[in-house]
Write a structure and sequence with these properties.
Length: 373
């Protein structure tokens, strides 16, 4: 979908910064501050990351976690960061589920998400819940095809995030730049954010595309998740996907790919993105879709749009031969951006019959796979 004109959207970054600042950095927050130090100690600060982390890089970084005893009264019991670890939040394993607990402070089994993924049984028929405590996990995570039926359960998309900073250059291609890449089927994520904090592409810069999440498995569901990046944030690669109450941020081509998503692709013709009951806002200008392929199919229904949407709405990448085969539809949208007066001729304002198949989870055949919350 949404594609922006180049060079916009610093505001996106400041929103990101504000969000993260509020959740991770507020000095009075209950959240341990060395979390941030840990992040700084591993990240080569990009302009985005330095906005995320507005205070100076502490030289005492990284050792603080081992110095939690009270200097004024060494007789007092040592205070461990794990004293406040909420074991009761971690769901118990059952016959049908395995549970893998991740806490970056080391308060449970795994300190990285990747280590937990690696521990999941190959071709498991159980649901494998990777329970991830709040915090920033600065790591590149890959879920291979054999590690199926995995759930990433975070503690809220504003407080739990997997963050990395590869871009197309550093990873030898946009497709490999994802902070998190999922190749297995039946993946679920709940209440967690995926971020790519590589530097924003400057005008005309090539190789700066930086994917936050690549979802390449079939039958994936995202509930209450955040996707943060600039160019190419969400690579909805292939398979049938469901996004419910998620937040997606980006600039150029920030959702792209060949998935069949309610928000399959066994062929180009049977792919498409459907956005129902969504809200689109921000600054700058975006298109609702740009036709990278001749069979691009995108529908927005019941979606509220601000004037961020370019009046022409859609873009065929200057290839009018695509206008016959692309399917770009709008249905009962609202807001200044939904004014269709100036739309390109191939944009379709759908009638009830045309819209019907895009409006519910039948679009992604979810009746046969989507598990209710
Ligand atoms: C779980 O498996 C055990 C051993 O196979 C069995 O005794 C128990 O009844 C099962 N529990 C449930 C809830 O299915
Ligand atoms: C997690 O740690 C507990 C206690 O140390 C252990 O019993 C359990 O097997 C571990 N679970 C995994 C999935 O490694
Ligand atoms: C596990 O994955 C397989 C293959 O994708 C799927 O058929 C099965 O329904 C999944 N089981 C669970 C519990 O999600
Ligand atoms: C996500 O977090 C919210 C607020 O913390 C909670 O109410 C909700 O049940 C959570 N949902 C999931 C799917 O974890
Ligand atoms: C990517 O590499 C090309 C060629 O080396 C270079 O011109 C470009 O500036 C690089 N882009 C980024 C974002 O590093
Ligand atoms: C829609 O846009 C046209 C052309 O810009 C304008 O004349 C018209 O007043 C707009 N309609 C609404 C309802 O805002
Ligand atoms: C909806 O549009 C299609 C395609 O233009 C047309 O064939 C159909 O008759 C229309 N249906 C209604 C109810 O207007
Ligand atoms: C989705 O809408 C279609 C067309 O209106 C309808 O046939 C189908 O039963 C609906 N599916 C669900 C899951 O509501
Ligand atoms: C969209 O919102 C309407 C009204 O709140 C609701 O009836 C419908 O189920 C929603 N559709 C989806 C796909 O969430």
């Amino acid at each position: 979908m949404a594609t922006s004109f180049k060079g916009i959207s610093l505001i996106f970054i400041s929103i990101l910064a504000a969000l993260i600042a509020a959740q991770f950095i507020a000095p009075n927050s209950a959240y341990p501050r060395y979390l941030i130090d840990d992040l700084i100690s591993v990240v080569t600060l990009s302009p985005i990351a330095s906005k995320l982390i507005p205070f100076e890089i502490g030289s005492s970084c990284c050792r603080r976690r081992h110095h939690h005893h009270n200097r004024h009264d060494d007789n007092k019991q040592k205070v461990s960061i794990c004293d406040s670890f909420r074991h009761d939040l971690v769901p118990p394993a059952t016959n049908a589920t395995s549970v893998f607990c991740v806490d970056h402070n080391g308060c449970c089994n795994f300190t990285t998400v990747q280590a937990a993924v690696d521990a999941v049984e190959t071709l498991s028929q159980k649901r494998n819940i990777i329970w991830i405590n709040q915090g920033i996990y600065f790591e590149k995570v890959m879920v291979p095809k054999t590690k199926q039926n995995i759930t990433f359960q975070g503690q809220g998309f504003e407080s739990t995030a997997i963050v990395y900073n590869d871009n197309a250059n550093s990873s030898h291609g946009t497709f490999y730049s994802g902070s998190v890449q999922v190749f297995s089927n039946n993946f679920i994520a709940k209440n967690i954010s995926f971020m790519n904090v590589a530097p924003m592409p400057g005008p005309g810069v090539v190789g700066a595309q930086a994917v936050a999440m690549r979802i390449s498995g079939d039958q994936a569901a995202f509930w209450g998740c955040g996707f943060f990046g600039a160019q190419d944030t969400l690579h909805d690669d292939r398979g049938r996907h469901y996004f419910k109450e998620c937040f997606i941020q980006g600039s150029i081509d920030f959702i792209f790919g060949n998935g069949k998503s309610l928000y399959e692709s066994f062929s180009d013709e049977d792919s498409g993105f459907s956005f129902v009951n969504c809200t689109i806002g921000g600054t700058g200008r975006i298109w609702l879709g740009r036709a990278w392929r001749p069979f691009s199919r995108v529908v927005y229904a019941f979606t509220s749009m601000t004037d961020i949407i370019a009046p022409e709405g859609w873009n065929d990448l200057n290839d009018p031969t695509r206008d016959q085969s692309i399917f770009y539809g709008e249905y009962k949208c609202s807001g200044a951006g939904a004014n269709a007066t100036m739309r390109v001729p191939y944009a379709q304002i759908l009638n009830d019959t045309q819209a019907a198949s895009f409006l519910n989870t039948s679009f992604i055949n979810a009746d046969i796979w989507l598990q209710p919350l």
